[in-house]
Design a protein that fits this description.
The protein is about 70% helix and about 5% strand. By secondary structure, the chain is mainly alpha-helical. α1 runs antiparallel to α10, α2 runs parallel beside α4 and α6 crosses α8. The model has no long low-confidence stretch (mean pLDDT about 90).
Amino acid sequence: MTLALFLQHLANGISLGSLYALVAIGYTMVYGILRLINFAHGNIFTAGAYLAFVGVALLQLSWGAAYVMAIVLTAALGVLVERVAYKPLRDAPRISVLISAIAVSFLLENLMVIIFGGRPKSFFRPPVFDQVMDIGSVKVPTVTFAIIAASAVLVIALSYMLYRTKPGLAMRALSSDFDTARLMAIDVDKTVALTFVVGSSLAAVGGILWAIKFPQVNPFMGGLPGLKAFVAAVLGGIGNVQGATIGGLMLGLAEVLLVAVFPAFSGYRDAIAFVALILILLWKPTGILGQEGRVKV
């Protein structure tokens, strides 16, 4: 493999890993505070892409306005899911909340099938993302740069919010000790809602960028990326935002580079994530940055 080809695969791997990271952060934030694996998160990812599709194709909005509308409505959907399906079960056994999360996932998936139909639909890709940039002998699509840049900016902004603002401090307090945070007059409901707003917004951005990179939408598009993002969150340390970011990047790079180096294994590309999950659980169950007995948002 030439250096130019390696760099091209590297850019593709970072781009894919950035998408996994955006979705993985949503998983890890919800788990960090509620100790809940939100299995509906992949469907939130799909909803973001479909809402952007509706904004452009049906409402005839500019693509920028459609994307903003999709992110806002997806954030609202995330809060609605939390209020309806999770809040009433906050003090219930964990298995009840888990069953509710699975039920919400199937509900959202089937609602999208009913509303939009089961056939894939073409997603409008803005012309700016159709260009190819030449960096020496490496040709990189502008959509790759856009994904990496958007992911980096969002992760930095999220880190700032978590460590430099009062809402972020409240989130970290809840992740450390839920009951003590309640006694310290932290508004639990508002903080949990904000967590779902942030996680769902990131999932929406991930869904929109995914639809731009692979320009089509279908009701099941969030299934596999959602599972891989969950693996990325576990790989990095479930409950740790920095770990989710690292896990997503590692998983994306592993998928792309392994297939690039060993083309004969391209049919096993999707299995890489689950092999990685088994290995990390056997080697270090808390993940790369996770700590035993502690969850860090």
